[in-house]
């Protein structure tokens, strides 16, 4: 499934200046931007920049960013699930994974993550997709935030709710390995019942579906 990527932009106040939330942006645009040194949750900023350029240029890939001037201080990615992941077994071309969301530490507390997700769902094309994200507590910055696992989970869940993603049960072993881990899902208004049933069969692949 391929849609024309509709560009959106909005501005939000932050301290004494303005942060721009925009996207989806191209790999060429990402190449022209600098990356905040605090964006290290997944890999070094320069390596993550290269990874995001690759995602942005995929037919289904979407990168939305938060900018302080010409510096990326936050981003969210959408792409098809990794072929090695359980979710790709659904073989749905209308299933996207919110693969990563990251905000530089000094910008946290301004709800930039929520703004990024709200902007992501402004595109009407998202109503054609099932969008998932998998949350694992070992990816969370518990030390930097000073939050407990459960308080951090509440923050993550509230942020995902801003993009319309809701908790859904699954028997996925990795998610089920700790009660704080979770699967969150947004099913677009135009997603057909057959796609939902295929997705549900993967959510509970350890069960017999009748």
State the helical fraction: 25-40%
CATH superfamily: Gcn5-related N-acetyltransferase (GNAT)
Query: How many domains make up the coordinates?
Result: 1
Q: What structural class do the secondary elements suggest? A: alpha+beta
Terminal-residue CA separation: 28 Å
Based on Cα principal axes, name the global outline: globular
Q: Sketch the topology as an H/E string, one letter per element.
A: EEHEHEEEHEHHEHEH
CATH topology label: Aminopeptidase
> What is the number of E strands?
9
Q: Give average pLDDT, whole number.
A: 93
If helices are DSSP runs of H or I spanning 4 or more residues, what is the number of helices?
Answer: 7
CATH class, please?
Alpha Beta
Question: Which radius of gyration do the C-alpha atoms yield?
Answer: 17 Å
């Amino acid at each position: 499934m391929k849609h024309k990527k509709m560009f959106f932009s909005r501005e939000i106040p932050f301290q004494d200046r303005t942060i721009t939330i925009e996207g989806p942006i191209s790999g060429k645009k990402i190449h022209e931007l600098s990356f905040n040194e605090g964006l290290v949750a997944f890999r070094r900023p320069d390596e993550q920049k290269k990874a995001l350029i690759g995602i942005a240029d995929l037919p289904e890939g979407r990168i939305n960013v938060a900018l302080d001037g010409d510096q990326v201080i936050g981003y969210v990615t959408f792409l098809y699930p990794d072929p090695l992941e359980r979710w790709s077994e659904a073989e749905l071309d209308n299933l996207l994974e919110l693969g990563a969301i990251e905000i530089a530490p000094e910008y946290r507390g301004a709800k930039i993550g929520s703004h990024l997700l709200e902007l992501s769902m402004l595109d009407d094309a998202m109503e054609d997709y099932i969008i998932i994200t998998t949350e694992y507590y070992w990816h969370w910055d518990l030390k930097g935030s000073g939050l407990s696992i459960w308080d951090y989970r509440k923050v993550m869940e509230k942020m995902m709710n801003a993009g319309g993603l809701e908790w859904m049960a699954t028997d996925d072993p990795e998610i089920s390995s700790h009660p704080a881990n979770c699967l969150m899902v947004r099913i677009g208004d135009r997603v057909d019942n057959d796609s939902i049933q295929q997705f549900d069969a993967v959510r509970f692949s350890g069960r017999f579906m009748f």
